[in-house]
Amino acid sequence: MADAITLKTEARSGKGGRDATRVRKAGRIPAIVYGHKVAPDAVTVSKDELLLALRQHARTLQLVVGGKNETVLIQSIQHNHLGSEVLHIDFRRVSADERVRTTVEIELRGHAPGTNSGGVLDQPLHKIHVECPALAIPTAIRVKIDALQIDQAIHVRELELPPGVKALEDPDLVVVQVKPAAILAEPTVAEGVAEPEVITKKKEKPAEEE
Amino acid sequence: MPQMPKRVKFRKTQRGRIRGNACRGNTVSFGEYGLQSLDRGWLSAEALEAGRVTVAQFMRGEGRLYIRVFPHKSVTSIPAETRMGKGKGEPEFWACVIKPGMILFEVGGMPETAAKDCLARVAYKMPFKCRFVKRQTT
After folding, report:
1. DSSP B23-53
2. ipTM of the complex
3. Domains of chain A
């Protein structure tokens, strides 16, 4: 877990998309702070400071809102359509003794020997839902795959979770597995069919007999 | 063989306009690396198939490929030297409607350098600008 980073906020006066664009042009990011049955605060944070915190995988931050220090959890981050810019960020107020539900990345460590003998590493689960203390959210859950042979899998129940962290996923869910290499299945298209079936096609009327 | 829907409600669709950016299907969800479109347009089923074959030949079974788009739209055309009128043309090909930001292909189970090389070959076959993207953390 990274140490709590402190961000200074400024109260946001305007509302709406145009104001948000103005805020972003000034090098700041619109944000909202909510939770603990307190009225939400619309604020802005420095883009550079926020991106630095995100690069350090910070999950909880210390926010200075109106001269008051608050511990917040990064609840959600909105990106632009290309995923290259942060547009808006939601902060949720948390207390030190609170347990929160969040997602944590799964990080694979090592090299699966099964991939040397013709297997393909398949990771169906990249993030896991966990419940843990707000101030002890792990950066990632590391999974050792050094002993993974072909047709072997690591399930959620086999994960080594840090103390105080409880997985909320189905214990039988596969996290990572080594499958036998197969030639990529060609998408199924019926041979000789030039056109799809039309489900609203009108039935031809039978010829009237005289 | 290029993909097309199995069943459709109508054989012919209006051309439409491609407005706005991708709000969905714009993050790497299944694999580890992806090819993201930076432009808008129609991606024909033939071009999609060409991309799939390129990845299959590069991987040789040593990785996973996910195709994130499907050609749902039929594009019609009328034969050359045809007089005006006489109704809409016949379906010529099937296409995916692509908006900027959409992830077209995803790969997994291979190192980053190999994935970059693989998807660069696919990008070469795409009718618009694309870029290589990684799965977003946090």
Report:
1. SSS-S--SSSEEEEE-S-EEEEHHHHHHHHH
2. 0.86
3. 6-94 (2.40.240.10), 101-180 (2.170.120.20)
